[in-house]
Every structure is written in structure tokens, then in C-alpha cells.
Amino acid sequence: MTLVKVYVTYKKSILDPQGEAITNAIHGMGFQDVNEVRMGKYFEISVDESSNTLKEDIEKICDNLLANPNMETYRYEFVDSEAVQ
Amino acid sequence: MTLVKVYVTYKKSILDPQGEAITNAIHGMGFQDVNEVRMGKYFEISVDESSNTLKEDIEKICDNLLANPNMETYRYEFVDSEAVQ
Amino acid sequence: MKFAVIVFPGSNCDKVLYYAIKDGVKADVEMVDFRNDSLAGFDAVLIPGGFSYGDYLRSGAIAGHAPIIPAIKEMANAGKPVLGICNGFQILTEIGLLDGALIRNKNNRFICETVPLKVENDQTIFTSEYQQGETIMIPVAHGEGNYYCDDKTLARLKANHQIVFTYEDDINGSVDNIAGITNEKKNVLGMMPHPERALEELVGSADGLRMFQSVLKNHMDRVNQ
Amino acid sequence: MTEPTATMIDQEKLYKSWGLSEAEFKIISEDILHRLPNYTEAGLFSVMWSEHCSYKNSKNVLRKFPNKGKRVLAGPGEDAGIIDIDDNQAVVFKAESHNHPSAVEPYQGPATGVGGIIRDIFSMGATPVAMLNSLKFGNLDNHHTKYLANEIVAGIGGYGNCIGIPTVGGEISFQKRYENNPVVNAMCVGLINNSDIKYGQASGEDNLIIYVGAKTGRDGIHGATFASDEFTDENKTQRSAVQVGDPFMEKLLMDACIELVQKHSEWIMGIQDMGAAGLVSSTAEMASKAESGLVLELDQVPQRETEMSAYEIMLSESQERMVLCVKPEYKEKIIEFFENAGLDAVVIGRVTTDKQYKIYQHGELVTDIPVAGLVDDAPEYVHEGTMPERLTKDDYKHQFEPQINSLTETWLQLLKQPNIASKEYFYRTYDSQIKANTVVKPGSDAATIRVRGTNKALSMTNDGNSKLVYVDPYIGGQNAVIEGSANLIASGAEPLGITDCLNYGNPEKAEIFWEFNKSVEGMASVCEKLELPVISGNVSLYNEFNEEAIYPSPMIGMVGLVKDLKDVITQGFKRVGDAIYLVGQTNDDFNGSEIQAMQAGDVKGELNPIDLEDIKHTQANILKAIRAGVVNSCHDLSEGGLAVALAEAAFENELGFDVTTELSAVATFSETPGRFLVSVSEQDRHAFEEYFENNLQYLGNVTQRATLKLTTNDFTAELTMSEALNTWKEAIPCLMK
Ligand SMILES: Nc1ncnc2c1ncn2[C@@H]1O[C@H](COP(=O)(O)OP(=O)(O)O)[C@@H](O)[C@H]1O
Ligand SMILES: [Mg+2]
Subunits touching C (CB < 8 Å, at least 3 pairs)? Predict the structure, then answer.
């Protein structure tokens, strides 16, 4: 079993209405030092067996489903790293 | 300027329908090895100046706003770590 | 009797709730902006449905920090009726006036439909005009209406008769099909279904009217005692 | 990044990659400017003269639509059309396509489409009261189409539900041609008091131009973008065509604009939303309408990103922004008003009288062109069309002959076709009841919304059976309008007018242009006949993937007036014992039909001509009968013909029927237009029959038994309610698994 953690965030130039609303709320709570909040998605994917193509598979899943390359970027990491080579 | 990364996830006992829908979609794409996907939230918080209370502040923000303790847990990390002591 | 309808940025069922009081039960009602910090002069608080702050982050989460919130808590603590519908229910759980949380519907999809509800407790100020066990038709419209609480909380809600409405069918995955609960003192009610959309047969059901009549009648009874 | 010089743009013909032709560039430099345009100016021209903004390829065709009428208060040219509904009230509506953005980003694309069409309505001063949408997807047999369908529907619902406007109707169909180019059309309907109507104009010297709403970012700058070699790779990846919608911001904007118009009308001269081609299109059009000039100061424009060029600021398609033209003395009041609503408002320019469009950035004059040149002088092209080859084949005259071995089986099979099956799986995710005005929810012929405070209601529908348009553009086009009108009539409403979305392939191809032109002629002929003005609309061309075009897909959005709430009617049978009638004649009309698609795997063959006089007469009489109170349910016959209409009428209240017809089994699937299925109380039968002379057939009765029984002159079929209902209801959820 391998655990893959994927982080998806909007590209810099993309509007992040959620992040903006959260920033305002944090200011409202009195934390003026907070400059900006950007909100993204976080996935924990557990994969049964480690195939040779795990890295490729994860990238395909990210490119086609978890992130839209037109507006988002992603990065991922394997937690059980010996599983991938 | 300090960057704080916050990860919010559902507690284990909580159903994650989005994660389930994504798992199904991944299976539909032909990746049967994927066992389970859990979806969470990911925040990048940039803080202007580092006060002495940064760690406390972030915890307050998480406890009171970013995560709902009834159903979620969170963890955070400082990217510019020298800023906090 | 004077009702307050709280208006948060993004509330979108506020006007209909206002009509429900003004035209439905013909009582005094006023819209109250979220920036106010007092509810002096009001006898009851209504928190409408909608998407406060876009429901960005988590439904009801950001509204939970609005200036009006302490005043709502004060009303609740003073035993005045506080009713949260849909997003209002979500806000009430976020600010801790009600137990549990509302998470995404089990099938991950928004649902809009008029559904049968069972009245589980007709001994509250909100439900005295209904009959215990009666089935009423009330519209739901939500994406995050799946009521969750842990087993201990559930046992407490049951023991204390805080479960007021349940869905006759499992429409969203809620624990025990819960559609609405009260606090321990039973003066705060949160429910996902929209009684304010069910005031006339013309739009599908008039079963929601009696909820507002209950609140009004109980207040008048108390005042006249 | 350095901008190319005017000479470079000219000599290297850079303008070509932005969609301007050599001839067009020549008109700009020689006839309009009498000099070469600089980078910003060339950019502005290329976008304002694009098909999307100028309609240069389609204008000539669109003129075929009638757009005048006794009740029309505003027609094409405004953000949305307006039709009077008596009592000093009017209905405002328009539809818009968002096909390409939806293919690129299937959640945000439709969401921003919904946001855009809502702005078109409230920018007239109207309160949006309902939304509809017309969706065309590929077949639900592959992962990608299911993903698109789910996301697109979620995007529409996500925006509409959040902003709080009920989504009450629409249509969804499936065909392989839409697999990589889905059609996503959204329509918004608003209400207004006639005295509140606002137009998008910038008039009166020294009046101020105020910008309200979201900040401007580099969103959606792609239509006319420069060749990629101008941007570094880093730049390119950060540059995006995708716009993200912010329904929360739009709700604030909508409520504020409506309140401003209703309470402080005297403060504002004009108001306009920023849609396609953002700031340039909205402000230039406002100036053009008032025949004035404008000076804009770009440094004042709220910006989300740093170092935006003038070109980028002007063309950005960031969402949730509005422009107002206001009297200077109210400036402070207006800014304060918006601030109180949680919105930023800033003065970005003023009105001038020289009819020039001038833009300053960093103290420099970066654009100085005549308003008219930008807005009104785009060339118009008249294309030659050629009849598509497929329509010229010999067997095209042949009428398809369905094969039936068992009526029961064919009937069930048809109820399961995604085009016919219940769309509840999708529309249940739209809040159709919010505002508590929805009298008829999705699921009947048209949706109906009461007008609060009156005894009136509005019915609305989206229609366009593209299979019929594909097999026969002219008659298929006629059919789209007839069906829209029939859906309203069957709901007890008098059709008032039309908005449209015209979705086609590349108009530069002669065959595509022919389809476009012919189908518009077909639609226009019915609009004339039924006296239905087309008051707004939208054209979406170039819907192709790998050179293969979508079916020609005009969508007709129609709104009707129910004069008295007692006339509101739905398609479902109401009472056991009611008599069931078929109104209208049934012919062999199988080409382009659902049964042909199902049995032959494809549609083809010309359609029979339609007697419009007969259609008009029948529709008028149905409405009379409904108003006379002798009709309990009414359903127009469309895809799947009589057999399907009977089943649908039975499903609403789960009431069975026992029907016998002189027709053959095959004929119960014919799609002859202009027919209605009506149920009538026993005591009203005579009164009802009076309206239709011999143009009707008594079929049988609504029954207590939960069975659907249909006897033809050659077959008998009996379905149990549960089997029929499950087949019809579960077909789409099953495919979506
Ligand atoms: N995209 C949609 N959004 C909302 N309602 C829809 C949508 N698609 C279909 N519906 C509803 O489903 C019902 C059946 O649609 P349709 O078969 O197209 O009707 P008709 O043939 O009478 O035009 C209608 O009430 C319609 O409004
Ligand atoms: Mg119909």
C-alpha cells in the first residue's frame, strides 16, 4: 500500500474567490498580519499495489481529473517512498 | 513574510462523498489499483510580519475558522521556518 | 411579537422568510443586517437559507464570525426562539448553538425536491401546531445537508427528545434521517428543509405555515399568561 | 515583454493571427484611423470586429427574424430584450452560449455562462426570477462524456443555487457529435417595472464612468491573443483562458444594482455589464449608443495582477464587473452606496462629445479611435451557402419505416432512450423552488413562475430538436419554434416572444453556412406566422472538433404570459375517469425521429412540409379551451410521439390509462408536429370538442389501475406503471453510474 498526497492549487493569475472570502474573515477576526490566503485541494490517494507505472498513473489522474491544467497546478508526493522507483 | 501551509482533512469516521466520487471516476478511467481517495482542503497563508504569537494565531485561525473540530482535523507547517521560533 | 430575519451577505432565502412572517402569519418582522450587534426589541430570530459568504470554505463557517453572532447567542441563552433554516441550521451548528455538523450529501449531489418529513416532537414552541408522527411535505434544497454527530451526541439528542423532524426517506445520508434538531432547552431549532417555501398550495404545499403559527401562538400564550 | 510596434504589426501581418483579415486591417488603417493602429488599438479592433462581438458573418442572416411587436419595449441591441406584460410590468430575457469555455473547463465554463446571462438581465434594471438551460452532450457511453455532463450540470447549479435564482427548466439531449463540443446555453428571465428600465448608454458630457465589482485580472484573454512568441514560457503557463466565477460577488453586485435602479434611478444615466471583450466592448457600446466619446484612465481600473498592459486590461474577461455612467454630482453617494454593499466602485473615466474613444495609461494616450469605427464600422459578410451533400442523396426522399414486433417492447425501449428518459437526475440538482414562486417545476412542458403580487404567471421553455434540424434545416428550424410555442400553450400561457442561441459549426464552410441560413429562415417563417418577435439572442459558431461540426443546433427560448393563475396547467393526467383526446392529425413522420435514431442508429431523410396555418389554428384553440376551464391536462407531442406522450402524462401523478386508437402501432411513434394530448372531465367533453371540429380523436380514459394500456389497429400493449416508470426514471442514473 502506498499513500500519495496530491496538492492542487490555482495558478497565480486565477481568481480565488474562496481565498479572498477567507482572508476577509481572518481580518474580521482581528488578525491583520495575514496578507493573503489561497485555497487549494488536498487529496490522499491510497494505492493497493505498487505497479511500475505508479508515477505515470498518478500524473494521468492528476492531469485528467484532479487538476485542470488550464487553471491549476499540482504537485504530489509518495509517503511510502520505497514503493516507487 | 512567512508562508504557512495548512491541511484540513475529515476525521476518519466521517464519510467523504467527494472522495468517493473521485475514487469511482478514477476506477472508471481504468486505474483499478487505486483503493481510496480522501479529499481535504489545503491553504497557503502568507503572513506579513512574524509576530511572536504567530503559532498561536495560526492555531486560533484553524480552530475557529479553517477547520470544524466536530468533523475535521488539521495540521500546518511553516515554510519560512526561521520566521517562527 | 416581533421577528428578526438576519441578512448575511449571500443569504438568499431572507425575503421569502420575511414574507412568511409578514403575509403568512401577519406578524411584525424586520430584516436585520449582519453588521448589527444587538437584537434588542426582538422576540425571535430567524436565520435564513442561502449561501452566506458563498459558503466558501465550509457552509456557515464564515458567517459564524459576523458581528451579529453574539447577539444571536444572547437571544438563545435568554430562551427566545431562534430558528435556523438550511444555511441557518449550518450556521447554528458552526457557532455551537446546536450539536453536530452538516456535511456533504451522501451522493455528493445537490438535491432540490419537496419531501415528506415526519414530525418527531410536537412538544416544542416550533411544532405545537403539528401532530406527533404526522407527515408533512416540505421542500429541501441543499448540497450539504447530511447531518452528522457522534454516537454519544445522538444518544443525548434522542434521550432529550431534541430530534424534531426526520426524513421519511434517506435523501442525504443524515444520521437517523435527522432533518431538524433543537438545543437542550428546545428554544433553538435548526432544520435543513424550508418551511418558508411551503406556505401555499399554489407552489406545492402549505404545510410549512403551521411552524410559524406555532411560534407566534406560543409567544402570545406566554405573554397572555 | 515589449509590445510590437505599429509598423511591425503591419509589415509582419501580426493582425492576421488575431483574426483580422488584410482587407479589414486596410479599412482600419486607411478609412478609419488614416494611420496605422498601435498594439493596443489593433487589439481592440480585432476583438470588437470578431464574430463574437460584431456578428459580421451572421448579421445578414439574423435580420430575417422579426423583432417588432405590440408588446416589445426593447429588442436586439440591448443587453436583453424586454416585453410588456401589462400593469406597467415587463419581462426581460436573453440566452447565451458558453460552449467553448465549457469544453475547456466543464465546471467554471457553464458557471461563468450563468453568471454572464444573469448580468445581462440585471443590467437592464430587472430582477432575475428564473433560469433555464439547454444542454447537448455526447452519448453517455464513455467516461469523458459522463464527466463533462456531471461537471457542466454542477457548474450551472453551483452558480444558480448560490446566487439564489431558481433554475426551472431546459432541455438535455445526447448525440455523438457533441462528445468533444458540448452545447451549453443558459437563459435568464427577469421582471421589471416599466419605469425602472435602464439602457447601456454613456451620455452627457462630463458624466462619469464608474467601474464596480471584481478586480480585473488576465482572465479569458485569448480570443484575439497575440502569437505566442511574444510570451515567455513562464508567462504562458500563468496566462489563462479560464475564468473562475464568483457567485457570491455577483449576488452582492446584483442586489446592489437592482436597489440602485429602483431607489436612485436619477443618479444613473446608463448601466451595462462587462461580458465578452470586457471593458472595451461595454464602454465602447455605451458610447456608441449615446453617440458620444469617452476618456478612460486605466490606472484607475482595479487590478488583480501587476503590470497589466492596456491591451490586457481592456480585453480581460474577468467576471462580476459592471460599468455605470453617472452624473458627477452623485459620485460620492454612489461610491458610498456600493461600499455599503461590500463592493468597490471607482471612477475610471468620463463622457466627451468628440465621439473619440481615448485611453490613457501611465499618463500616455495609448488609444485614440473613433467610437463608431470600433463599434459600428465592422464589415458585414454575406456568404454563399451550399446544400450539404447528405441532403441531396436519392434516398433522402424516402420515409423511414419503423419495425415493430412487439409494441410493448418498442415502447419500453423508447422510454429508455436518454433523449426521452426523465432528466430528473440532472435537474434535481438545481434549486428550482427558491423564492417560492415556482408554480410548475421542471418535469412538465414548460415551467411556470407566478408574478408575486399579481394574478399572473410566466411560463418558459427551451427547445430545439437538433436531429430534425440536421436532417432538414428549414423544416427542422420551423419545428424548434413550433415546439417552444406548443410547450407554452400546453401550459396555459400565451407566447410573448423569443430569445435564441444559434449553435453551429464553422460558417466559412459553405455547407455549414447553408444549414445556418436555412434553419434561421425556417424559424423566422414560424415567428412571422405566430407573431413571435425575437427580442434577443446569441450566435455561437465554430463548434467543431477535428473538423467535424456539431449538428446545427438552434435553441429557442420562449416566454409566455399566463393571464390568470387558474389557467396554469401541467402535462399529467389529473383524475380517474377523465377522457383522453389526441388533437391534430398524425402522418408518417419518422425521419429525424427518436425511433429512427433508435432503430437505424442514425437519422436522415427530408421532413414533410408543415401547414403553419393549421398549427396556429390548433394552438389558438387549445389556449381558448384551457382558458375556458375545460382542460385538465395538456401535453404537446414531441420526441417519441403519442406513445411517449401518453406515458409521460401518466407518470406525473401515477395514473394509468386505457387508450384505443385507429392508428397503427408504428404511427404512435410518429413525430408529426402540432399535436396535443389532452385530458378532459367527462362533463366537459362536449364543450371541449366544440373547439376542434374533426381535428381530434377520442382515445379513452384515465384509469385507476396502475397500467398503461394502448391498443392500436394492429397491436395491444400493456405496461405496469412501476415497470414503465422505472424504465423511464432509471435510464439516465443507470448510464451515469
Ligand atoms: N437542463 C435542464 N434544466 C432544467 N430542467 C430541465 C432540463 N432539461 C430538461 N428539463 C425539464 O425536463 C422536462 C422534460 O423536458 P423535455 O423532454 O425537453 O420537454 P419537452 O419535450 O416538452 O420540451 C421539462 O420540464 C424540462 O424543463
Ligand atoms: Mg413538451
Answer: A, B, D
Does domain B2-84 fall into CATH 3.30.1280.10?
A: yes
Task: Name D564's Cβ contacts closer than 8 Å, sequence gap at least 6.
Answer: D455, D456, D627
Domain with residues C2-224, CATH architecture: 3-Layer(aba) Sandwich (3.40)
Chains contacting chain D through 3 or more C-beta pairs under 8 A:
A, B, C
Instruction: Give the confidence band of C105 by pLDDT, cuts at 50, 70, 90.
Output: very high
Model confidence at C108: pLDDT above 50: yes
Q: Using CA positions, which residue lies closest to atom 14 of ligand 1?
A: D443
Alpha carbons D611 and D589: distance in angstroms, whole number: 14
Q: Give the model's pLDDT for residue B1.
A: 80
Residue in the block written with cell 416566454: D559
> Is the per-residue pLDDT at D235 higher than 50?
no
Domain spanning D69-197+443-568, CATH class = alpha beta
Tell me the residue type at D728. W
D546: left (phi over 0), alpha (psi -120 to 50) or beta: left
Q: How many angstroms separate the Cα of B20 from the Cα of each of B15, B16, C104?
A: 9, 6, 12
Query: What proportions of chain D, in percent to the nearest 5, are helix, strand and coil?
Result: 40, 25, 35
Residue C175 near residue C148 (C-beta atoms within 8 A): yes
Q: Which CATH class is domain D401-421+570-737?
A: alpha beta
Domain locations in chain C? 2-224
Helices (H) then strands (E): counts for chain A: 2, 3
Total length of chain B: 85
Q: What amino acid is encoded at D653 in this protein?
A: N
Instruction: Classify the phi-psi angles of C220: left when phi > 0, otherwise alpha if psi is within -120 to 50, otherwise beta.
Output: alpha
Residue D380 DSSP one-character state: -
Nearest-10 Cα torsion for D100, D102, D103, D107: 160
Tell me, in angstroms, the distance from the centre of ligand 1 to residue D420's CA.
Answer: 10
For chain D, give every domain's residue range: 39-67+199-378, 69-197+443-568, 401-421+570-737
* Annotation: CATH topology of D39-67+199-378: Phosphoribosyl-aminoimidazole Synthetase; Chain A, domain 2 (3.90.650)
D634 lines ligand 1 (CB under 6 A): no
Q: What is the pLDDT of residues B42-77, one digit of tens each?
A: 999 999 876 778 889 999 999 999 999 889 999 999
In sequence order, the 6+-apart residues with CB closer than 8 A to the CB of D125 are D192, D196, D197, D198, D257, D258, D261, D262, D271
Residue D31 main-chain phi, psi, to 5 deg:
-90, -35
User: Are C65 and A22 a contacting pair at CB < 8 A?
Assistant: no
- Whether residue B85 has pLDDT greater than 60: no
- Where exactly are the structural domains of chain B? 2-84
| Reported pTM | 0.94
> Could you give the CA distance from residue D271 to residue D265 in angstroms, rounded to a whole number?
11
Q: What is the 3-state secondary structure (H, E, C) of chain C?
A: CEEEEEECCCECCHHHHHHHHHHHCCCEEEEEECCCCCCCCCCEEEECCECHHHHCCCCCCCHHHCCCHHHHHHHHHCCCCEEEECHHHHHHHHCCCCCCEEECCCCCCCEEEEEEEEECCCCCCCCCCCCCCCEEEEEEEECCCEEECCHHHHHHHHHCCCEEEEECCCCCCCHHHEEEEECCCCCEEEECCCHHHCCEHHHCECCCHHHHHHHHHHHHHHHHC
Assess whether D362 carries a catalytic annotation. no
Burial of D151 per CB tally in 10 Å (0-12, 13-18, 19+):
buried
User: What pLDDT, on a 0 to 100 scale, did the predictor assign at position A80?
Assistant: 67
Does pLDDT of D236 surpass 70? Answer: no
C-alpha cell, D46 = 480585432
Task: Specify whether D383 is catalytic.
Answer: no
Average pLDDT for residues D504-510, to the nearest whole number? Answer: 93
ipTM of the complex: 0.92
Helix (H) or strand (E) holding D720: strand D716-720
From C94, C120, C142, C194, active-site residue: C194
